[in-house]
Amino acid sequence: MTAASVVARRRALDAVAPWARRNGWTLGLVGFLGLLLVYTKLIQPSYDSSGIQGLAIGVLPLALAAVAQAVVVMSGGIDLSIGSMMAFTSVVCATMMKGQSQEFAVVVVLGVLVLGIVLGAVNGALVVLTKVPDIVVTLAMSFVWAGCALLVRAAPGGAAAEWLRNLVLGSFISEWIPKSAIVLIVIVAVIWIPVSRSRMGLSIYAIGSNRLAAFRSGIPVGRTKLFAYALTGLYAALAGLSLTASTGIGTPVPGPYTLMSVAAVVLGGVSLAGGRGGLFGPIVAVVVLQVIRTDMTFLSIDSNYAYVAQGLILVGVLMVGSFALMRRSRA
Amino acid sequence: MTAAVRANRWLDAAAWRNLFRDRPLIPLTGLLLLLVITIQIADPGIVTLPWWGVIMRASVPLAILAGCQTLTMLTGGIDLSVATVASMAGFVTATFVNSPGGWVQGMAVALAAAALAGLVTGIGVGVFRVHPLIMTLAMSFVVLGFSNVWQLQMVQTGAGVPSQLRWVGSNLLLDVIPYSFLVFVPLTLLILLGLRRTGYGRLLFAIGDNPIAARLSGVRSPQILIVLYVISAVLAAIAGLIISGFTNTASVSLADTYLLPSVAAAVIGGTSIMGGRGGFAGTIVGALILTVLTALLTVLGLPEPTRQIVFGSIIVVVAAAYTRVTGES
Amino acid sequence: MTVTADLLLEATGVSKTYGAVVALKSASLAVRPGEVHALVGANGAGKSTFVKILTGVVHPDAGRIVVRGRERTAHSPAEARRGGLISVYQEPSLIPDLDIRANLRLTETPREPFRHWLGELGLRDLDLSTLARRLPLASLRIIDLARALAIEPDVLMLDEMTAALPANLTERVLDVLGRVRGGDRSVIFISHRLIEIAAVCDRATVLREGETVGVVDVTAGTEERIVELMLGQSVEALSARTAAVAGPESRARAATPRISARSLSSGTRLNDASFDLYPGEVLGVVALEGQGQDELFDILAGSERPRGGELLVDGKPANFRHPADAIRVGLVYVAADRAEALLMQRSIRENIALPFSSRLRHWGLIDLGREREKVDGAVATLQIDARAGGEVRRLSGGNQQKVTIARWVAGGVRTMLCFDPTRGIDIRTKTQIYRLLRDMADAGAAILLYTSELKEVQLVCDRAIVIFGGRVVGEVSAAEGDEPTLLRAAYNLRSESAVPEGVAAMLASTSSGADASTPAGPGPSEVPQ
User: Fold this and answer.
1) Which tens digit of pLDDT belongs to each residue from C342-387?
2) What kind and span of H or E run contains C91?
3) H/E stretch holding A90
4) Domains of chain C, each with CATH number or no CATH
5) C-alpha atoms less than 13 angstroms from C-alpha of C113 in its C-beta half-sphere
6) Fewer CB in 10 Å around end: N or C, chain B?
7) In terms of Cα–Cα distance, which of A224, A177, A230 is closest to A201?
8) In whole angstroms, what is the distance from residue C181 CA to residue C294 CA?
9) Which residues on chain B are in Cβ contact (under 8 Å) with C303?
10) CA quadruple C46, C49, C55, C61: dihedral positive or negative?
11) How many CB pairs under 8 A join A and C?
């Protein structure tokens, strides 16, 4: 009996241990987030469900941007045009929804998602066909997409359909469960889980991990890369939609999302070299960064220090992380 | 059709390839001239000596910032902190205008702050092996944050761009030669000579091309990278001073619009972002091309959005052309 | 012709030019069903281009490839795979960040046959949920092969797959290939090791200067014929050198050793390495793969720090924190992997001059005249074919390796550490490198040479140390160091029984060699200490 239970426990441990080891970084982040939330409650006893809701809404666009970035980084690329694609899709959405019916808005949303896929696919196709490094192509395309956004609408404006706004504002069942958090989880799960289970998902990791080996294993490297970029475009479009949904307008000037998404991806444990990481880590990283900002407001620290803090955290984490990596590779 | 014709065409293509690969300056200058001719056709009589002066004046800070990118890209890196460092330098100098030390003290403080930022970046990249993209990105947050804090401190004392900087940044000698050449020409000579004729320059190429080979040959890359990012930050600060003089403004986001064009100019100039290949001469022409292109689009009456689109497309096309001619197989 | 119809794969008149360089003029290859067919050729013979064309990586300018009677043009390895041709390379095609199970799914490999072949190759207990990154290179090669076998391709192509594979695993691989043969499937076997070709191949196609110069039935003694075809000249020259070289016996034993290793250890592989390297000698290092020689060279080159033991250079204790420290006291390192040593986009001159400017005080202006003098001298000494000019990546493999050696020759060599410097290089370049090493030693340099080709010991070395299980277990003089002796020593065999020539020796020694995983006691009795 006891022996059996020990065996069973050991077996469970055996099953969990490798998983925990592989996802150690993310687990650590989650733990840190928990501590941060406790700390937040301590310094601001009035922090409650409305605080959580604000947090979830504030986090949504950047979280989706981070997810978009994570997909392409795992495939060994990087997309510096995510902020521009968000601006473009956001203004298209807000402009087309203005003065239109709720039903038409559904068509607009679908259209914008397709637009996102197309934008991403164009990025991917250019990377694959021209063989120019990803960073250069997407940097250049960030000009192009930002220009397109400005062509659609020179100044912030437009409108968002009522149902779209309701989708992310408010809470669901309990006031502790913000709708935007549900939306985020559903969006990520519905798209990523089937993809990551498929051969295409494996191929994304494969071309990021070792391009030559993937090529020799008969994986269509170009097509896989194109797919990863298209998926990034789709998530960027979703991020753009969430911008419009949460603000009610479209803004043609790209926010700080591109660079922040890179930062979140790195903090979230996705290797910039490709092939490693998941989508959960970057999302948690985005939440952590946002909570730190909130805490600094509560502590009435000037918001400018938040920039300093963000940069220092990024630098600190990276240095510690790289150092750990160096030691591990030496051992 | 016939074998002879095909062979002939092939020869031509190969000749072009070799020209691009071995002497990228020639086709680049050709492209620049083509743009100038186009602008002359679009607006007859616009291309005059004073026009060149204006173009060169606008190109100088861009070329210096692109120089930062060139140097870091040669080692396989990139410096995304140049814009905030440049803004910081211009801004900090401006805040010292009413202080006892005056603008000279301000410049000293600004350059020292930039060097410090570069030092930290260099240590992160060189010693801790943080990816340069991320390290410089993080550093740009830190610098921007401190600039903002500084701004709050300085809000009472008031600020203004020193007249000396305005003179260097915006005035033209005989309506043609920008006074910023006083800074730019020595810098250019230093960089060109440094890359071609010094051991340090060779090592920049070496660690960019193959860090393992460099290490096995006894090269200590941390030393090189630390020095490199200090150089890059100081160059960025100098560019920032010129920009603040040129625009007669000082703000913490002054040079933001220069960030992406600085990378673009280096890429167009033929520097590989993967490291090991490129040079500063190409970068200067790249900066000129971007400036003339901007002028051309303004002449054509194309709005800002179109300008951005054309800008982006041209980077892709030029970079693709380079990859085609320099790549194997 | 009726014969043509019987062929499984037939390539005729295949040609390919890169710019002005002709890589393949007219190559042909005919593989019969059920045979193991060797494809051999010196470096620059066009072998790798031919392989790339067959696997769909490169498109030929002209030529026909017919598989099972149908003309086929593959545009990618994926298409080649679908067409029934799978390749296994020296670098395993497994994705490091995926576990083995996911790697199998990626190539749609059936699990059961994979398990079967894995067992046949001696890896029955592999845990499929291991990340590929965590497995040793040799295991990955075996897994890669098992994966290819499990798919049952019409044609299996092994491209230098056995290069640098431990001898016992090589032997397993050859054994399995021998059993695959005979059905209606074929194997194309590419290797620099004629001994392996003799052991397992039925026929061999020989390439020289982009042309197929002959197809030989492999029987006893065909190695000579193959080498003749490859060289296009008699092999007399090479064997003549053997006599000239073997002879110089530890002349300078009285002097202080350049390197004295005392019980060096590192990681888990290297446990107790002690030896002396004297000026004026070439000291061979003989070891099976993974016996700690990599770690030893890393320590001597300053890449890694030892876990224990002491290293004396010229009698003084040395503690290297960086390769630069080793170089400063005259220890320079030549790697087997040229991708680790060369700046591929830079010129020959910059590559050779690289170490000159590595030190802080040489960061300043370069004296171009002096640099040119040194570089030109080194280029002449090594007979580097500098006609291609420009970037080093456009040179042939042999010339590239010469550049990595020239880098050190230009500055004057005191002590050179060569780790398998002739791996994957044609015979002509090899002989040049042997001669150079010999000349440098005769001029007073000390040279430590690890080699995976045992016959190199008699060709260049004065004596050789044998490393087994992370320990130096013995020393063999060049005169005694014929291949059978060295092989037995490398396996740490104590038996006095004579070892027969060639592969039979490898086969016979494998089982006992594999058992002797924990070495005990002194080395072979013939070791003169």
Assistant:
1) 888 888 888 888 888 777 777 877 878 888 888 888 888 877 776 6
2) none
3) helix A82-97
4) 1-73+155-160+182-234 (3.40.50.300), 255-330+414-425+444-517 (3.40.50.300), 338-413 (no CATH)
5) 13
6) N
7) A224
8) 35
9) 215-216
10) negative
11) 64
Residue to mutate among B73, B91, B130, B221, with most A CBs inside 10 A, is B130
Residue A218: list chain C partners with CB under 8 A: 76-78, 80-82, 107
Judge whether residue B284 has pLDDT over 90.
yes
How far apart (Å, rounded) are the C-alpha atoms in residues B89 and B107?
7
Alpha helices in C318-426 (DSSP H): 323-328, 348-353, 368-382, 397-409
Task: Report the C-alpha gap between B93 and B244 in whole angstroms.
Answer: 9
Flag if B319 and A132 touch (Cβ within 8 Å): yes
Do residues C359 and C337 touch, judged by C-beta distance below 8 A? no
Please check whether residue A329 lies inside any domain of the structure: no
Q: Which of C333, C511, C306 is nearest to C413 (CA)?
A: C333
* Residue C242 pLDDT class (50, 70, 90 cuts): very low
Going by pLDDT thresholds of 50, 70 and 90, the confidence category of residue B137 is: confident
Whether A325 maps to a domain, the answer reads no
Instruction: Judge whether C96 is closer than 8 Å to chain A, CB to CB.
Output: yes
Q: Is residue A136 part of a domain?
A: yes
Put simply, whether A304 touches B (Cβ < 8 Å) is yes
State the Cα–Cα distance between residues B18 and B7, nearest whole angstrom.
Answer: 16
Cβ distance of A311 and B140 shorter than 8 Å: yes
Chain B residues near residue A266 by CB distance under 8 angstroms: 131, 134
Contacts of C92 in chain A (CB under 8 A): 213
Write the pLDDT tens digit of every residue in C1-37: 434 457 888 888 888 876 656 778 888 888 888 888 8
Is residue B67 very low, low, confident or very high in pLDDT (cuts 50, 70, 90)? very high
Within 8 A of A309 by CB-CB distance, chain B residues are 145
Residue A58 clears pLDDT 50, i.e. is over it: yes
The predicted model scores a pTM of: 0.77
Q: State the first-to-last Cα distance of chain B, in angstroms, to the nearest integer.
A: 24
When divided into structural domains, chain A yields a total of 1
| Spatial distance between the Cα atoms of C379 and C385, rounded to a whole number of angstroms | 8
Asked if B217 lies within 8 A of C407 by C-beta distance, the reply is yes
Q: How far is CA A4 from CA A9, A14, A16, C306, in A?
A: 8, 15, 18, 45
Check if the beta carbon of residue A179 is closer than 8 Å to that of residue A169: yes
Predicted-complex ipTM score = 0.78
Q: What whole-number percentage of chain A has pLDDT above 90?
A: 26
C89 phi and psi, to 5 degrees?
-110, 170
Tell whether A328 is within 8 A of chain C (Cβ): no
**For residues B81-93, average pLDDT:** 90
Nearest to C355 among B205, B217, B328 (CB): B217
Q: Is residue A310 part of a domain?
A: no
Per residue in B207-237, pLDDT (tens digit) is 988 888 888 888 888 989 999 999 999 999 9
Residues C524 and C493 sit within 8 Å (Cβ to Cβ): yes
Of B212, B218, B276, which is closest to C358 when you measure between CB atoms? B218
DSSP for A38-65 reads HHHHHH-TT--HHHHHHHHHHHHHHHHH
CA distances (Å), origin B200, targets B72, B126, B277: 13, 15, 15
| DSSP per-residue string spanning A138-180 | HHHHHHHHHHHHHHH-SSSB----HHHHHHHSSEESEEEEEHH
Measure the CA–CA gap between B285 and B288, rounded to whole angstroms.
Answer: 5
Environment class of B4 (CB within 10 Å of its CB; exposed 0-12, middle 13-18, buried 19+):
exposed
Of C443 and C427, the one with more pLDDT: C443
Per residue in C129-146, pLDDT tens? 888 888 887 888 888 889
Distance from CA of C191 to the nearest CA of B (A): 25
Q: Are C281 and C252 in contact (CB under 8 A)?
A: yes
